[in-house]
């Protein structure tokens, strides 16, 4: 069972087509089919079901695929780490992050990274929720992730600081002239909800916080992305609580919460940080993330988080 055969299987599944996978891999369809059949013989049964239009994983294939993906992506990370450790120019770093952080926090840092390492390509993988980000990292999609602290993560986690959460309202909202707002001030308001809300013990954090404040939030709209949620709040659909950096580029009013709400931002990986991944974390600690208050001006250290 070779790594190349597993790469072939992963590509066929991702493309949902032997034809497209063969084109992408630069091999003939017959050679691709031969390698997949050889892999199936070694695995002890069929991994793919050939359909008139496309392919579908068999139960055995569904069990096998996550391990094949991990092996293929781990090999890619190994080559990139060796390349970086050798001091070679070029190469690439795969970074996974949340959409809100990709838009509101990382652009300036990535621009600085490019200035310092112009020969290195950076590939950014964006996800809507922390659960999707964690799942992608568990499957080896990227060398490094930037997101909120993952619970019980087995690999290294480096604390970068905290983002401030604020209430977002439309410019003409009655609350727009306030300097701060308490959660109880929002009890009778409609809410814009976002999938990026943290989940605590299976419940969305805002539901828990409002329950403690004595009310149930009345949801007007649910969104997948923070940028969509901010646009909804800015238009007057309802009030939103999100990170301050997520609202920075919108025509809206942001109100700090009293008492303040903050959420930890971390960098994390499946394996020990080396090469380009370690260099990127060092840059995060040295330059700081826009919209994130650093715990330290130098090398950030791993810490625990309540959220």
Explain the overall architecture.
- The chain is of the alpha/beta class and 307 residues long.
- It has helices spanning 3-15, 18-25, 29-43, 59-85, 99-104, 107-116, 130-138, 205-213, 226-234, 244-247, 275-287, and strands at residues 48-51, 54-57, 92-98, 121-127, 144-148, 157-169, 190-194, 199-200, 203-204, 218-223, 240-243, 253-268, 292-293.
- Strand 1 and strand 2 (54-57) form a beta hairpin.
- Residues 295-307 have low confidence and may be disordered.
Report the uncertain regions.
Answer: 295-307
Query: How much is the radius of gyration in Å?
Result: 23 Å
Class derived from helix and strand content: alpha/beta
Average pLDDT: 84
Strand content: 25-35%
Work out the helicity level: 40-55%
Using the alpha-carbon principal axes, give the shape: elongated
Number of helices: 11
Distance between the termini: 42 Å
Run of helices and strands: HHHEEHEHHEHEEEEEHEHEHEHE
Strand count? 13
In short:
With 307 residues, the protein is of the alpha/beta class. The chain is built from eleven helices and 13 strands. It has helices at 3-15, 18-25, 29-43, 59-85, 99-104, 107-116, 130-138, 205-213, 226-234, 244-247, 275-287, and strands at residues 48-51, 54-57, 92-98, 121-127, 144-148, 157-169, 190-194, 199-200, 203-204, 218-223, 240-243, 253-268, 292-293.
């Amino acid at each position: 069972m070779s790594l190349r055969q597993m790469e072939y299987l992963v590509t066929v599944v991702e493309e949902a087509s032997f034809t497209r996978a063969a084109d992408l891999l630069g091999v003939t369809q017959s050679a691709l089919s031969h390698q997949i059949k050889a892999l199936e013989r070694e695995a002890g049964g069929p991994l793919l079901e050939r359909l008139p239009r496309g392919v579908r994983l068999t139960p055995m294939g569904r069990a096998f695929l996550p391990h094949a993906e991990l092996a293929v992506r781990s090999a890619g990370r190994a080559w990139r780490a060796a390349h970086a450790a050798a001091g070679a120019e070029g190469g690439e770093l795969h970074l996974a992050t949340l959409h809100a952080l990709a838009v509101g926090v990382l652009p300036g840092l990535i621009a600085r990274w490019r200035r310092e390492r112009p020969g290195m390509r950076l590939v950014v993988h964006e996800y809507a929720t922390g659960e999707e980000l964690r799942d992608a990292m568990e499957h080896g999609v990227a060398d490094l992730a930037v997101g909120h602290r993952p619970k019980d993560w087995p690999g290294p986690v480096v604390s970068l600081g905290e983002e401030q959460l604020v209430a977002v309202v439309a410019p003409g909202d009655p609350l727009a002239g306030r300097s701060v707002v308490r959660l109880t001030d929002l009890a009778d308001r409609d809410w814009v909800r976002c999938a990026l809300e943290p989940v605590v013990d299976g419940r969305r954090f805002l539901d828990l916080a409002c329950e403690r404040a004595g009310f149930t939030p009345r949801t007007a709209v649910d969104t997948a992305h923070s940028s969509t949620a901010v646009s909804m709040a800015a238009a007057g659909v309802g009030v939103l609580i999100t990170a301050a950096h997520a609202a920075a580029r919108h025509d809206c009013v942001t109100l700090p919460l009293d008492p303040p709400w903050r959420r930890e931002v971390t960098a994390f990986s499946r394996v020990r940080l080396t090469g380009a991944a370690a260099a990127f974390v060092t840059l995060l600690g040295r330059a700081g993330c826009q919209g994130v208050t650093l715990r330290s001006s130098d090398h950030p250290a791993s810490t625990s988080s309540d959220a």
